[in-house]
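4.2 Preliminary Data

To establish feasibility before requesting continued support, the project team ran the inverse folding procedure on a target of 354 residues. The structure was first converted into the token representation described in Section 3, and no sequence information of any kind was made available to the design step. The complete token record follows.
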């Protein structure tokens, strides 16, 4: 099962740790508990720390249409920025108990900039309708970790998580519907291509597709739990209902131009696991940006036949998610890492721990 393991415990980000704990093939459950205990004990003792702390394990980043940035992470941490990621404010959500909060794994917003969702462990789903000023809990109906939320619009969203869990809503989260797909493969990410078509990816090279907004799903690829050497897919994104990319262990990236009926391998400059990515559209050229283990960061021009850019290495901490707004971009990961670019990704600078 060696190829189904991702990285080492020492480099585990919180999201990767959660993947390992949930899937049975990722090995950072101990790191999750260690960092949780450390954060809880140290948080009260070190009020001198600023909003970003060296033990933080950030798992997801998103930006609204109004240019407001959000980062979530372990132990209920939520960071917000209104100045392009230069400075941040800190608060906690999803309280578990005294000085304890549930881990948060994903934050995503609708294009209206007001409606957004956060997902986390124990089926936590939080919703905002005021651009992230306030968050309220919604009943997801599941107890598994929900590793990623995908949002199509203010009414339609879906989530993917442990033990084959897929959930969806078509009424802004007033009601969430869930199902467990056959085989109980852990799903790490999902994405919409349009209002009807969505894809989820996970262990054992699994890709499943929905043609009805997440209500029902069919297997397109993988799903065989005996194929231990097939790399897990950890990220998926679609440009429309036909063109999309999946990425995962071993620097694997695959591209489809027919809605997932067939996939072709894409050359990448890395061999480390790829945890997150984002699609950037411009008037001249679309591109996909990826982040992964060992602080790796690179882009690929779309379509997939173009050669990848050289891998950047702005940090040694694992990077798990990335987002752009105009020329500004933010990448987040372990060890309190937030990287910022203001030149379309040509250079990246850390936002310091204070």
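Position-by-position output of the design step:
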């Amino acid at each position: 099962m060696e190829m189904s393991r991702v990285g080492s415990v020492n480099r585990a980000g919180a999201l990767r740790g959660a993947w390992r704990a949930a899937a049975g093939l990722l090995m950072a459950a101990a790191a999750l508990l260690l960092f949780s205990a450390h954060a809880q004990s140290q948080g009260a003792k070190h009020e001198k720390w600023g909003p970003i702390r060296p033990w933080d394990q950030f798992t997801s980043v998103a930006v609204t249409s109004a240019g407001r940035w959000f980062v979530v992470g372990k132990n209920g941490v939520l960071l917000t920025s209104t100045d392009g990621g230069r400075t941040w404010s800190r608060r906690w959500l999803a309280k578990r108990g005294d000085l304890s909060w549930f881990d948060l794994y994903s934050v995503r917003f609708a294009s209206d900039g007001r409606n957004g969702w956060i997902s986390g462990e124990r089926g936590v789903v939080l919703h905002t309708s005021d651009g992230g000023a306030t968050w309220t809990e919604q009943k997801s109906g599941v107890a598994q970790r929900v590793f990623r939320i995908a949002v199509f619009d203010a009414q339609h969203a879906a989530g993917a998580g442990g033990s084959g869990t897929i959930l969806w809503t078509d009424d802004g989260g007033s009601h969430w519907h869930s199902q467990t797909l056959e085989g109980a493969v852990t799903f790490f990410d999902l994405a919409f291509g349009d209002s009807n078509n969505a894809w989820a990816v996970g262990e054992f090279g699994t890709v499943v597709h929905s043609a009805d907004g997440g209500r029902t799903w069919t297997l397109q690829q993988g799903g065989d739990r005996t194929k231990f050497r097939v790399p897990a897919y950890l990220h998926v994104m679609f440009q429309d209902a036909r063109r999309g990319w999946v990425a995962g262990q071993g620097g694997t990236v695959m591209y489809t131009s027919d809605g997932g009926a067939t996939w072709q391998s894409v050359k990448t400059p890395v061999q480390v696991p790829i945890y997150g990515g984002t699609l950037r559209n411009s008037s001249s050229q679309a591109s996909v940006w990826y982040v992964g283990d060992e602080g790796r960061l690179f882009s690929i021009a779309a379509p997939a036949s173009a050669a990848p850019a050289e891998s950047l290495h702005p940090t040694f901490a694992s990077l798990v998610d990335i987002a752009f707004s105009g020329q500004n971009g933010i990448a987040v990961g372990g060890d309190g890492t937030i990287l910022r670019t203001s030149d379309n990704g040509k250079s990246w600078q850390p936002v310091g721990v204070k």
